[in-house]
Amino acid sequence: MSPDFHEIWVYLSASPLAGLTLTLAAYQAGMWVFERFGRRPALNPVMIAVLLIAATLMVAGIDYRTYFDGAQFVHFLLGPATVALAVPLYRQFQQVRRSALALLVALLTGSAASALSAVAIAWALGASERTMLSLAPKSVTSPIAMGVSEQIGGLPSLTAVFVILTGIIAASFGTWVLNLVRVKDWRARGFGLGVAAHGIGTARALQVNEVAGAFAGLGMGLNGLVTAILLPVLYRLFFM
Amino acid sequence: MLGTLTLLLSCQLAGELTARLLHLPVPGPVLGMVLLFAGLLVRGGVPEPLQETAGGILRHLSLLFVPAGVGVMAHLNRLEAEALPIAAALLGSTLIGVALTAWVMSVLSRRGPDAETEAEGAEDAP
Fold first, then answer.
1. ipTM of the complex
2. Is B121 in CB contact (< 8 Å) with chain A?
């Protein structure tokens, strides 16, 4: 490494520029691969971007903390993005008021089943407490999931990984399991995907049917709210 | 754009302050979302600039997951050590969640006004 290059390197690793640029470039590469190969659920752009960045950091010998110092500007936008979810929620709220009771019961059942079954299965197979707490909020969109995880004593960054994997699983096997339980109503199929698999489930529902997409978006927003309110309360009942 | 960004941040800030002052077990941004939602109900509609800014941010929502997702690097040891419980919990709970939510909803809304929107063969359904 020449002295000049070394100086540049020291400058870059001290400024947020490199981490930010790497994040945006890797995400666009992920989007390109996703579009190029027919939008397959398994080629999730977030997953690709994460793998690209992780590989780059390992090769360059940079640790996660240093990278995150730069990338936290992107991360910060999760807060305002969560607030912005009020807009699609409001728009769909007007359309779906008439099935309110069915939605509410399905929401509470699905939300509780997703969180409790994740913790129960992990517990039965001997997972650590930290891992179980990080798994509990994995069905909701990641800004909310990470906030809840932090509050109940999980690891927010581990929860973020679980959130993404949950979305990919639902997008890949959702059709199969919905056919298995013989649900044909588009509203119900979409709502199931949104409640159990947040934005990635919603994106999948939108690809196939507009009604399913609208109900998935509603399910995602409502489950974010229910999980944020109920999980910390449940946690206090059981663990404190 | 600038105005609505200020609005979104103000709602978030109000949410954070409320959560802290009242010791509520809810993340600040979620309270901010409830606040904005209530505001929209009172106003009775979404202003055009808010629609544009919110749409712009939410279109790229998945980009915002990336920095946290790279945190997988920091957890490789845990993921390796607990691979079986983690994989089983994610797969099992996700499929249970999708199926149960959809099934309960379809049973309860069977006589709903939108029965004609039922999927036909459901081969390519979501």
1. 0.79
2. no
